[in-house]
Amino acid sequence: MTEFKAQDLTGARFEGSSLRNAVFEDVDLSGARFDNVNLSGTTVRGARLVDVSLDGDIRNLTVWGIDVVPLVDAELNRRYPGRERMRPTDADGYREAWDLLEQLWSETVTKARRLPPELLHESVDGEWSFIETLRHLVFATDAWVRRAVLGVPEPWHPLDLPHDEMHDTPPVPRDRAARPSLDEVLELRTDRMTTVRTFLADLTDDQLTEQTTPVPGPGYPASESYAVGRCLGTILGEEFEHRRYAERDLATLQARTVGAGS
């Protein structure tokens, strides 16, 4: 067991490392950043949590013995109307959720078009640019609808952009240097969104619990069987949350243009 006692590790970087079951006692983590970390089963006691930001797949999080996730979930639903509709339980609910997503994204794209085109390639606080966000959603549809549900082994387009945490998985493309125009990416988006709408049009309640047929060959998701409802639910979540992030970052970019013009 390696021990670090009374050592200054300020600015140290841990990447691709395992700290499972590690013990942190009297440790200064102020200003630390955790990206794509697995904190399942972590216990924190006697902590000083001031100005802390936490997001991700958060479940069963207790603060002073109270599960705060339902409280946060309710507040997010209040702040972002329609979010509660992204967890439908029947086919009609999925169709209604998709109708709402198409409407919301139409409004967001309208805002994006008001900005100088070069800003749509600009990252805000290290997050994906607007163009990259749209490319990722094309990837998500290719992965969870065209590959997992429809059984297309290699549904990828060269502009597909997987999540950063995913290991390179040929033949899935990952061209972070590409700079397509907004119209070019929207053409892809329209095609993929039409695919989803067409599938949902004939979706039945029984289909939601059916298992997909594993797709042969490498790719993402892995060649396994998934519940159709899980695949579609993944798409709804991706679409809604990334649209929320896009709205946040577009507002920041808009403020910059206003400030630059003053």
Automatic annotation (TrEMBL):
Ranges where the DinB-like domain occurs: 101-245
A Pfam family annotated for this UniProt entry: DinB_2
Top-rank taxon, per record: Bacteria
Protein known as: DinB family protein
Species: Kribbella speibonae
